């Protein structure tokens, strides 16, 4: 029997003592910047050693002087558990010891949304083409979380533009991102569901949804978007 997933209030309480970390979709995320690439690599080794010691392995992505970290518990359905909050605290300590600076504004993700009347008729095509599988939230996800997830929005009246992008940001960053997107020329077309999401359009009317992990109104039973992370502990 694996560890129990934490409730949203429990996750929020835990984040109060994890200032570097943010909730996005189903995972805890943090991004650290280091003074040199060599220091970032050394931090990666630190995280690897800590993961082995805890027998709990996060996703890590090294980009020059930045390291992106995400953690969920695979045996708990790719949800956040106490194992993730404990590992997040340890990673924060390791980053600080190497002089790492958290950059929460970089905690972002992208999802492709497809308006359709029958998701079951479309999902197999996308899954076969992309090599994806169904995630815990019902989305199609990259098993190694390298590409954006895909979800099929059931509607009786699909929009003329059937595809749109959902940009997922941490709740505390949403207002700043929203202002930058609008300043860049986007029109805010629907804010009824804010702060869970805002619907915007570019100059040609292409839709973009800015999404956060805020509690969501009922939207047909769909869980918060983003799918599950790559296989692992």
Automatic annotation (TrEMBL):
Keyword Lyase: yes
Stated family: Belongs to the pterin-4-alpha-carbinolamine dehydratase family.
Catalytic reaction list: (4aS,6R)-4a-hydroxy-L-erythro-5,6,7,8-tetrahydrobiopterin = (6R)-L-erythro-6,7-dihydrobiopterin + H2O
Ranges in a coiled coil: none
Keyword Lyase attached: yes
InterPro entries: Glyas_Bleomycin-R_OHBP_Dase, Glyoxalase_6, PCD_sf, Pterin_deHydtase
Pfam families from the UniProt entry: Glyoxalase_6 (PF18029), Pterin_4a (PF01329)
Enzyme Commission number(s) from the entry: 4.2.1.96
Organism: Kineococcus glutinatus
Domain Glyoxalase-like, chain residue ranges per copy: 112-211
Keyword annotations of the record: Lyase
Top-level enzyme category: lyase
Protein known as: Putative pterin-4-alpha-carbinolamine dehydratase
């Amino acid at each position: 029997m694996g560890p129990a997933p934490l409730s949203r209030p429990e996750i929020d309480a835990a984040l109060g003592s994890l200032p570097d970390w943010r909730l996005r979709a189903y995972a805890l995320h943090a991004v650290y910047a280091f003074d040199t690439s060599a220091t970032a690599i050394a931090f990666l080794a630190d995280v690897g050693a800590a993961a082995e010691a805890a027998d709990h392995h996060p996703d890590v992505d090294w980009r020059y002087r930045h390291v992106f970290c995400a953690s969920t518990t695979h045996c708990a359905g790719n949800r956040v558990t106490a194992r993730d909050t404990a590992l997040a605290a340890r990673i924060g300590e390791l980053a600080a010891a190497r002089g790492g600076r958290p950059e929460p504004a970089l905690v972002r993700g992208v999802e492709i949304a497809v308006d359709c009347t029958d998701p079951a008729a479309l999902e197999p095509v996308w899954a076969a083409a992309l090599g994806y599988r169904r995630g815990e939230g019902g989305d199609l996800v990259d098993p190694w979380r390298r590409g954006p997830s895909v979800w099929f929005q059931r509607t009786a009246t699909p929009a003329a533009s059937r595809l749109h992008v959902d940009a997922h940001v941490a709740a505390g960053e949403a207002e700043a991102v929203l202002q930058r997107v609008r300043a860049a020329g986007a029109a805010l077309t629907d804010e009824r569901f804010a702060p869970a999401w805002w619907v915007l359009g570019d100059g040609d009317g292409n839709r973009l949804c800015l999404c956060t992990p805020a509690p969501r109104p009922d939207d047909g039973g769909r869980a918060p978007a983003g799918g599950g992370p790559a296989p692992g502990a």
